[in-house]
Amino acid sequence: MAKPNKKAPAKSVNIYCSKCQQKLFKYKKGGKGALVKCFKERIVEDYTAKPCFCPNCESEFARDTLVRGTPAYKIIGGKVRVK
After folding, report:
1. What is this structure's pTM?
2. How far is Cα 40 from Cα 78, in angstroms, rounded to an integer?
3. Three-state secondary structure along the chain?
4. Cβ neighbours of residue 73 under 8 Å, at least 6 residues apart?
5. Is the pLDDT reported for residue 28 higher than 90?
6. Which of 9, 51, 56, 60: disulfide with 22, CB 3.0–4.6 Å?
7. Which backbone phi and psi does 63 adopt, to 5 degrees?
8. Which tens digits make up the pLDDT trace of 43-76?
């Protein structure tokens, strides 16, 4: 499978915890679909202290994994909101 494009998309979104509304990431998202994974190279600002855990309520919102050979966070369904 192909790797993600090196050039990041122009659209930037904010990702929040759905439980406590804490801001987690500012992310360069491509496409119109739901947020399933976050490639680490596309994260512009990271507000988490411990990877994959909300800094406010300590709930796990993602899992650290490799997607197409690139480090990424695989989002757990219903744990984050995108605005």
Report:
1. 0.89
2. 20
3. CCCCCCCCCCCEEEEEECCCCCEEEEEECCCCCCCCEEEHHHEEEECCCCCCECCCCCCECEEEEEECCEEEEEECCCCEEEC
4. 37, 38, 40, 51, 52, 62, 63, 64, 65
5. yes
6. 56
7. -125, 140
8. 999 999 999 999 999 999 999 999 999 999 999 9
